[in-house]
Amino acid sequence: MRLDEGLQPERTELAWVRTASSTAAIAVIYLRFAPGHSIATAVAGGSALVVAVGVLASSARRLGRVSAGVAVGRLAPDVLSNAVLVVLVLVLTGVAGFGVAVDLLR
Question: Which residue windows are transmembrane per the record (predicted)?
């Protein structure tokens, strides 16, 4: 069995780019077609765009670190990138929950 020593980081990077692109596209569509242009709508759409940019930045950082680790044969866990992604997802979840609460109170 032949080992794939260099393409896994690139495939993972492409998956994160697709995820960020999808998130950004959904945010733009949401901002364009959401009924009632309110502050909650703008915050939710803007937060999704910020998350998309954060995912792109985190994945680029991860690709550089993992590629360098593969080259020298030593990888360590990237706690900072994982923490950033967790915080971004929690922020987006909180904003979505806030938007739902605002809609329910109307």
Answer: 40-60, 80-105
